[in-house]
Amino acid sequence: MEKYYKRKEPSSDENPYENPSNEVPRPISTPSMPKLVDLDKLPWDPAERIRILDYHPNQRDIVRRKYWSNGPCQPRGHDFPKKKIGNKERRFVPTWFDRYGNWLEYSVKEDKAFCLCCYLCRDYVGIGIANEGGRDAFMTVGFNSWNKTERFDRHVGGVNSFHNKALRRCEDLVNQTQSIAVALHKQDDIMKKENRIRLNATIEACRFCLKCALPFCGHDESETSSFKGIFLELMDLILSQNEELKRLPKAPGNNKYLSPSTQKDVAHCFEEEVLKSIFNEIGDDVFALLVDESSDVSRKEQMAIVLRYVDAHGLIKERFVGLVHVMETSSLVLKSTIGTFFAKYKLSLKQLRGQGYDGASNMRGEFNGLKAKILEENKSAYYVHCFAHQLQLVVVAVARKHVGVEKFFDKVNILMNVVCASCKRKDIFREVEREEIEKEIVSGLTETGSGLNQELSLTRPGDTRWNSHYKTLTRLIDLFSTIVKVLERIANGSSNDSSKSQADGILEYLESFDFVFHLHLMSHILGLTDMLSRALQKKDQDILGAVSFVGSTKESLQNYREVGFDSLLQKVSSFCEKHDIKVLNMAQDYVSSRPRTQRNKITNQHYFKFDCFNTVMDRLIQEFGDRFNEVNTELLKNIAAFSPCDSFSNFDASRLLRLSEFYPYDFGVGEKIMLEHQLGSYHHNVLQDKKFANLNGIADLAKVMVETRKHISYHLVYRLLKLALVLPVATATVERSFSAMKRVKSSLRNRIGDDFLNACVICAVEKDELANVINEDVIERFQKMKSRRGQL
């Protein structure tokens, strides 16, 4: 009847739940089913979480298991704020984490304590239980009465307390023997052993694919396929060589541990084990943050996170810990993403003692950059510019700001496209180059011999490849005659009108004084910074060497700015005469290629010296000054007093005491007095010890201090030394992570998910940590990830 007659809606003054006829009333509205959420974006701060019942029913147990496996949010290195309670200032005590480590959580956002197991399983146990000590506070609003520490024990209560029931429920949740799926599919010990053997083989195959950054799946994985993909082919190889696997009976189709979901779970287990070992090494110690951004092949913006720290053996380590997909690249979004990442792995911004980014404004901006946002929370997180980016970013900055240099690099890119566009044109280039070398040999201008007159090629410049611009410009100078003849052949012999016009335009610009001037100017500038760029690409670059290179490079640029124009002009004129290019008279009026932009009459001398040379050099020197400001320069100079070279000839206790003043969180007033006494004793002691006689840098100094146990006797000196070592010099590890990402997420594999991509890249970059992961740890984590029918 409902199909033909609509039920009368109750009026506003009637009670919709009053029903004298004892019929079941029809609800006015049905609450909507919660939507599925992205499990990788679960908030880690307890104050930001929603109720478990607000998740989709199909996801609740997965959410519970994920939170429980990751453990409570315990930012041990956080600077816990004080609040006045009564007549005293109180705060959260980090040692409470050790006493109540399996359930106690702390919210950085609200400065309150929470209970993890009660949050996860209170709805299972029931809400109608009598109020127990602090139960509501620890579950909902949070607990912050730091003077009433007895509330923690009252919250735990007795054996059958609300808290202990929730705790047992959480433990049962990850206990596979309590699973319904396991109860319905009983397995004996023999079958469990067989499952473990199969999973071990899968783990080894996954380890190989992760280490070599190889794709797991193949295009055709059927049994009749000639190549089923690297993973399955590797599994067949393992099966053919492993007698124990051969003897196993054939497993059911859903219990072979070969599915793509199993491969991803194993990769995720490897990722978590690698990160666990890294974060265990850091512990509550200080570290530096290195961040860079790059887009992958699917045009997703990725943020690579690298941590630099000193381990227990005194060794400097830079570890890649995550590749995070960011929707925006603003400083606020980046900081929020980093904060979420730190909370997930129980780190704190208060542990930061250094930052290293590239020169982008959203990273190093003085007021709204990521550097400034982090400095607002931690004044000791000093920013040191990413040295490895120095050369390329300066070139790009100059190219964008100066019209002449920008036009020059645009033309160079077009030249590369025209000359190196096809195999045919490359063959023409080789043929012309060979003819030029033969002419020079016949005329006696070139010598012959073993290793001489090797074939050269043009190198395409790139904004992210170290030294690529410098190599490109030097090749342009060496192969100028060859390039001109190749362009003439293309202009005269091509049937494509577009190629002819491009070749003619490039030829006209190449044979101009303006091109030759900018070519030699930028080539000389990149030559001055080449040694610095090469030195800073080393993975274990010593910070003292970096200071020396930066200082000498700045002096060379300043000296070239003052006296270099005449020598540059002489070099340009000589090049023009050699290649029959018209040399401009510097006393004549300058004629712009765009007359409308030229307002005042100036001479060629004035334009090329003041508008080009001086402007470019001033901007370069300013770029160096911005990236190495007074604070950073003083920091690096004070660190130089630690140098053990030449029998500690640079040792200066006053400089090291000045260095300690940069870190007020690490040295109190009393400790500064003790540090002064320790420095004098330390200097005398290491001079007498032969093990400190031939050290090359402060990195070796830290290592030997740990080996000789002097890091315990002079603990304040060693603490200051670690603060110096964590300052980032070059972010080569960040660049290597992007190289690994390009191998993992290729054009043929561009649909790989963010989680799987992150796991693959971490394992590919941190190969040493991956090799140390034990299969048993992977199996244990794999079993606890979710309910599985196959038991191990």
Features:
792 residues, alpha+beta, two-stranded antiparallel sheet, 8 strands, globular, DUF4371, protein dimerization activity, RNaseH-like_sf, Znf_TTF
Q: How would you describe what is shown here?
A:
The protein is α+β, with helices and mostly antiparallel strands and about 800 residues long. The protein is built from 36 helices and eight strands. A four-stranded mixed β-sheet has the order 7-6-5-8, sandwiched between helices. The chain has a two-stranded antiparallel sheet with strand order 1-2. Strand 5 (about 285-295) and strand 6 (about 300-310) form a beta hairpin. Helix 8 (about 190-210) crosses helix 11 (about 260-280), helix 11 (about 260-280) crosses helix 36 and helix 33 (about 730-745) crosses helix 34. The longest helix is centred in the last third of the chain and has 24 residues, at about 605-625. Mean pLDDT is about 80; it is low at about 10-30 and about 125-135.
Strand content: 5-15%
Number of helices: 36
Sketch the major β-sheet.
4 strands, mixed
Radius of gyration: 34 Å
The total beta strand count reads: 8
Domain TTF-type: 88-186
Pfam families: Dimer_Tnp_hAT (PF05699), DUF4371 (PF14291)
Protein name: TTF-type domain-containing protein
GO molecular function, one term: protein dimerization activity
SSE layout and pairings?
Blueprint: H1 60-70, E1 83-85, E2 88-90, H2 95-99, E3 104-107, E4 112-115, H3 116-125, H4 135-141, H5 150-156, H6 162-174, H7 180-184, H8 189-211, H9 230-241, H10 243-246, H11 260-282, E5 287-295, E6 301-310, E7 316-325, H12 331-344, E8 352-356, H13 361-364, H14 370-377, H15 390-401, H16 403-419, H17 423-443, H18 468-478, H19 480-493, H20 497-510, H21 513-528, H22 530-535, H23 543-563, H24 565-578, H25 604-627, H26 630-639, H27 645-648, H28 653-660, H29 669-688, H30 698-707, H31 710-713, H32 715-725, H33 732-744, H34 754-765, H35 767-771, H36 775-785
Parallel strand pairs: 5-8
Antiparallel strand pairs: 1-2, 3-4, 5-6, 6-7
